[in-house]
Design goal:
Elements (H helix, E strand, L loop, with lengths): L9 E4 L5 H12 L3 E6 L4 H11 L6 E4 L5 H11 L4 E4 L14 H29 L2 E6 L12 H21 L4 E8 L5 H7 L2 H9 L9 H12 L10 E4 L6
Length: 248
């Protein structure tokens, strides 16, 4: 019987010291995985999460790297070694209107949201192929289908990332490896807290969500667990919207 047990599996969850990444890391640990946390720096939130996970009897190591720095990404990869599961959650959003988009902002978002994500897959995929088992989950965004007018580059890169998932999934489907994406909608995280604190703005956003409520990070984490486990062995090349119907 296929189940959600990840005992014996080693997972790297990037951008996992808060928000969606944190919830995914917590869920994978509870499922028995050895989880490697990642943050840009070893800050207080990372330390608190490590303490929390240690209390479960499953301590998690932390690696740090600024994904805008290719050398830092490669150094992190070397320190991690191999993984069975890669959850790519790191992303940067730079809000600029069409007429004010700067080339530096484009380069920064491409480096973090696309180049680093691809580099991680290139680095960790060979081990998965050798053992005929692997899981790759990319965290995308509802903006792939409903782009924000002031996040043109971010939305375009998330759409490109979803296409990359399909491409790599097709190439690896016969090797015991699944490659999928999750496209969260408006999730109640620290990143969204400031704008959603405005009642008028929040009301307008809710009007565009058929479910008429915001998502929780745990909503995304549950889907990630499915895709990382044997329960999701027959799912590959898909992009699952977790957005209360916002993409419709």
């Amino acid at each position: 019987m296929h189940d959600f047990d990840l005992t014996g599996r080693r997972a790297l969850v990037t951008g996992s010291t808060e928000g969606i990444g944190k919830a995914i890391a917590q869920r994978l640990v509870l499922a028995g995985a050895e989880v490697i946390l990642h943050g840009v720096t070893a800050d207080a939130s990372a330390a608190l999460l490590q303490q929390e996970l240690a209390s479960t009897g499953r301590p998690a190591n932390l690696v740090t790297a600024d994904f805008a720095d290719a050398a830092a990404v490669d150094a992190m990869i070397s320190s991690v070694g191999h993984v069975d599961i890669l959850v790519s959650n790191v992303a940067v959003q730079i809000k600029e209107s069409l007429g004010s988009i700067q080339s530096t902002a484009i380069d920064h978002q491409v480096a973090v949201n696309m180049k680093a994500a691809l580099r991680l897959i290139q680095a960790f995929l060979p081990y998965m192929q050798a053992q005929k088992w692997g899981r790759i989950v990319m965290i995308g965004s509802v903006q792939e289908s409903v782009p924000h007018p002031d996040m043109i580059i971010y939305a375009a890169l998330k759409a490109a990332q979803a296409n990359m998932v399909k491409n790599i999934a097709r190439q690896t489907a016969g090797e015991g490896i699944t490659v999928n994406a999750i496209a969260p909608g408006v999730i109640l995280t620290n990143r969204n807290a400031a704008v959603l604190a405005d009642p008028g703005y929040a009301k307008g956003v809710l009007a565009g969500i058929p479910a008429r409520c915001f998502g929780e990070a745990e909503d995304v984490a549950g889907t990630a667990l499915l895709l990382c486990s044997d329960a999701g062995r027959y799912i590959t090349g898909t992009n699952l919207p977790i957005d209360g119907g916002m993409h419709l």
